[in-house]
Amino acid sequence: MDASAVADERHRPERQASRPESSAPLDWALRPAEIADVETIAELRATVLRDDLERLGRFDEHRVRQRLRDSFSSRHTSVITVGGAFAGCVTLRPADDGHWLEHFYLAPELQGQGVGSAVLSSLLDRTDAEDVPVRLIVLRGSAAQRLYERHGFTVEHADPIDVSMVRRPGTPAR
To answer: pTM of the full predicted structure?
Structure first.
């Protein structure tokens, strides 16, 4: 994996315990991103997206990092920490018709442990309180699409590379 709701609460980190079914709870938190985080996030993006982009014939060592640098907004981005250490990021950007969920990346060694689901649930609780939809784009064939579908996102449009998804307010998770 920030919205105006995230920006409004930037003075106090959000802290939750995520309880994966087969392991001890992971203590995660969101903190406001800083400009200094951009290179760490760009590297994480390159790591997380590499397999999917290679599968789609679209991986470029420079471009994968530069696209993050070009669109990075510390105002709308939160850094995910687990046990106090950098674990990922998420951007929730306000738009005229709701929010865009962007740059939701979690370190590979933490994927599948419930952290991403817990972070996403927390963000969706906020957008539900605002009664606005959330949109995102995920790479075709990415495992992340299943996470989004479990949280109530549905496909709006798909092309050979990208899948556009939306979640209406109050849609229950499956």
So the answer is: 0.85
Distance (Å) of CA 160 to CA 4, 28, 58, 78, 166: 32, 35, 11, 30, 18
pLDDT digit string (tens) for the chain, length 174 residues: 333 333 333 333 444 444 344 444 589 999 999 999 999 999 999 999 999 999 999 999 999 999 999 999 999 999 999 999 999 999 999 999 999 999 999 999 999 999 999 999 999 999 999 999 999 999 999 999 999 999 999 999 999 999 999 999 999 998
Measured CA to CA, the distance from residue 80 to residue 111 in angstroms comes to 13
How many CB atoms are closer than 10 A to CB 16? 16
